[in-house]
Specification:
This protein has three domains: about 10-60; about 80-240, Intergrase catalytic core (hpI Integrase, Chain A, Orthogonal Bundle), CATH 1.10.443.10; about 250-280, no CATH class. It is about 50% helix and about 10% strand. It has eleven helices and six strands. Strands 1-2-3 form a three-stranded antiparallel beta sheet, with no helix packed on it. It has a three-stranded antiparallel beta sheet with strand order 4-6-5. A hairpin with a 2-residue loop joins strand 5 and strand 6. Helix 4 runs antiparallel to helix 5, helix 5 packs parallel to helix 9 and helix 9 packs antiparallel against helix 10. The mean pLDDT is about 90.
């Protein structure tokens, strides 16, 4: 797989999947493996992915393998409420909370955020430069002054914002992901809201894409934010927005400072009334 140009992370998770199967059945016996897949309690999409990993393995070992017919079932992604995301961020530790806030505001992938370097921050523009993964486009994303302050409060021990370069990035990411999952579980139980347990790093990318399409109704704008090269990957978010039930949160700004804060929080200016500025944001 390395010789064929697969990414390190793809190779890593393929090997991990094969090791997991080998612990439960004879990996060198394709029929035993197919029996195991048929009986194991995982989704059709996961089985389809495992079959692809197995097919590569058996091709390398020159073992005949008739692939079972599992198909990925497309499902609409879970999109939480912004209030639920904010509750999770507020309850998380400093590093985890900053990481989640970054994903929320930029829509970047977790791997892109994990590889973010201090040099990628532009404090003059309140922006971050995103080095892409998964063959997507590089891009720059504006962030709030609040998030920039959160980032600047993190220790600058290494060139990377979140990770230690002396530790394998995939393994350190898995440790960080498990820590975030524990914090998420505690928050869900404390607030008695099981929906919070469904908020993953990828969920925040879905939320950003959906909220931006809801706000702008511009699919090309969303495509640019996500760094997609193929618009078909972006079109799924058009199915998550119901424009017939637009409910808004309305805010009033008395000063330029208050107006700036509302704009940074995603509110749109509407009009002036009695010397005040009115803003709104979809719920």
């Amino acid at each position: 797989m390395n010789k064929q140009g697969y990414r390190h992370s793809t190779v890593h998770y393929c090997v991990q999947a094969l090791k997991s199967i080998a612990r439960q059945t004879n990996l060198l016996d394709p029929e035993s493996v197919k029996t195991f897949l048929a009986s194991t309690d995982v989704s059709e999409a996961r089985k389809a992915k495992l079959v692809e990993d197995l097919a590569r393995f058996y091709s390398w070992k020159h073992v005949q393998f008739d692939k079972p017919n599992y198909r990925r079932i497309e499902r609409l992604p879970f999109v939480p409420l912004e209030s639920e995301i904010d509750q999770l961020i507020s309850a998380a530790g400093r590093k985890t909370g900053t990481f989640l806030q970054l994903l929320k505001e930029t829509g970047m992938r977790a791997g892109e955020a994990w590889n973010l370097k201090w040099i990628d921050l532009d404090p003059e523009k309140d922006a971050v430069n995103i080095a892409p993964e998964k063959n997507s486009n590089p891009r720059q994303s504006r962030i709030s002054t609040r998030l920039m302050a959160m980032l600047n409060r993190l220790p600058r021990r290494y060139e990377y914002v979140f990770r230690n370069p002396r530790i394998d990035p995939l393994r350190s990411m898995e440790v960080f992901r498990r820590s975030a999952a524990r914090q998420r579980k505690r928050t869900s139980e404390r607030l008695q809201n099981p929906r919070i347990r469904n908020i993953t790093f990828k969920t925040l990318r879905h939320w950003k894409a959906t909220s931006e399409y809801h706000r702008t109704r511009d699919i090309l704008h969303v495509m640019s934010i996500l760094g997609h090269k193929n618009i078909r990957n972006t079109l799924v978010y058009t199915h998550l927005v119901d424009f017939h039930s637009d409910d808004y949160i309305c805010k009033v700004a008395k000063t330029a400072s208050e107006a700036r804060t509302l704009v940074e929080d995603g509110f749109d200016y509407v009009t002036d009334a009695e010397g005040l500025k009115l803003f709104r944001k979809r719920k």
